[in-house]
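Fold this complex.
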Amino acid sequence: NAGVMQNPRHLVRRRGQEARLRCSPMKGHSHVYWYRQLPEEGLKFMVYLQKENIIDESGMPKERFSAEFPKEGPSILRIQQVVRGDSAAYFCASSGTQNTEAFFGQGTRLTVV
Amino acid sequence: KNEVEQSPQNLTAQEGEFITINCSYSVGISALHWLQQHPGGGIVSLFMLSSGKKKHGRLIATINIQEKHSSLHITASHPRDSAVYICAVRSGGGADGLTFGKGTHLIIQP
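Structure:
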């Protein structure tokens, strides 16, 4: 039973490009959370999704960021027109139900140059 | 909004010492998590607690709901325990993501 899989592990983008981060939850998990860890800062909640639904996006920046979790396939965190301040580690976690233990992926480290 | 405070921020100890990391939060929760992160690495979930105490190997986690406080203990510490330990809480409603402490940087010297 594979754990939470995130890809790519490292992503370099030039300013203005788009970044797509993928997260495949653990088998049987339908709850996905995205978190961001800025350099020298703690983790911050971004968005909580269930299959085909965004449950809570209160932590998402209002512009350029979007997330989806389609019926088939991984969850995608999309950042349009990236800026240097988007450079961070983005972690995905999944759980089987809302209040059970969440398992984290290895993260995607985004560098904007 | 829940505020999560961890102490100490940094801790250096000698191999074999008993380690305690503390976490306090401000608002009622449905669960508290202890996580471990190695430099440049992923995040590993160590414990999820809603009451009492849990033990796994040399790690022990306790929570006092009335005091809004949790502790993570490491017995017989080893250099491989060197990592950042993060406390995170899910608020009582349970409908949102975790709120994290800033983490405790632990270094165990041989």
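Residues 33 and 48 of chain A are 4 Å apart (CA to CA).
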